[in-house]
Structure formats: structure tokens, C-alpha cells
Amino acid sequence: MDETVRELAERLLSRGYEDLPEREQRVLRRIASRAAISRNVNESFHERLTMGQRIADRVAAFGGSWTFILLFACVILGWVGVNAWLLTVPPDPYPFVFLNLIPSMLAAVQAPVIMMSQNRQAAKDRLAAAHDYEVNLKAELEIMRLHEKLDALRQHELVEHFRTLEARIEAMADPRRQS
Questions:
Q1: Membrane-crossing residues (predicted)?
Q2: Residue 90, preceding bond cis, omega within 30 degrees?
């Protein structure tokens, strides 16, 4: 198999196997062994997440949802309603200083969590792009191999056709066969 991979590198990529990047070597090894290269990148990425990363992703998903926005709006309206109209001695009277502090603290905690989640999503996207490159490269190289096989088959058919024609011409030129 080792010699096949080296020959594939020379024939399909016009470069030595050792001169290729690791992922292209991996693709050639998969072609030589006729193994699939496709895999679910999401599963392998999610398997490596820590508990903290999973929680951060859930917090970011919830913090960026309409459910959070509507729930937060209801809490603010409820806070204002209770402190402005229902309680005679409100713990947070108008202009609701404590209420203003709560969204600020929430934003201070939520922003880094969302950024961590976005950074992980970007890393996942880079991983998916690298995998897509490998799949596309393998498909392209397999197509090149198919073209080589078709060209060889056509060449073989042409050779056979010429042999048939040559035999006919010789039969027509041989006077012993004409009588």
C-alpha cells in the first residue's frame, strides 16, 4: 500500500508524498485503502466539550432567544409594576436604580459567555471547512483516477480497432486469400 500512495501522489498531484501537507497525505492514504473520508464533524467536536463549555453554549443559546427577551421584558414590567403601583413602601422606588443595576450585571456576565460560545462556533466552522476540503480533494482525485481509467479503456479500444482494420487490410492485400 505504501508504494501505491506514493505513486498516487506523483500521478495525481505531481508532487512527492513527503512534500504534501498532512491532510493531503491522509486523503491519499484513504484513496489507496478505498476508505471513506466523510465523518460527522459535529459529533467529534461536541464529544470534546467540557461541562463548562456545554453550559456556556446553552446560556448563549438561551440569551440570544426570543424566549429570553420576552421573559426579561416580563420581569422588568413586573418589577416596575410591583415597585411603582402595588407596594406602599417599595424596595426599589422610581427611578428604579436597582433594576438598572441588574441588566448591567447580566450583560457583564452574559457577554463573555456569548463570546466564548462564538469562539467555539468559529473553531467548529474551521474544523468543518478543513473536513470539507479533504472530502472535496478526495472527490477530485477520484474523478481524476476515473478519467485515467476511461482514457486507458478508450486507448485499448482504439488499439483493438486498429488491429481489426490492419487484419482486414492484410487480408485484402494477400493474393492467396482473395482466390
A1: 59-82, 94-116
A2: no
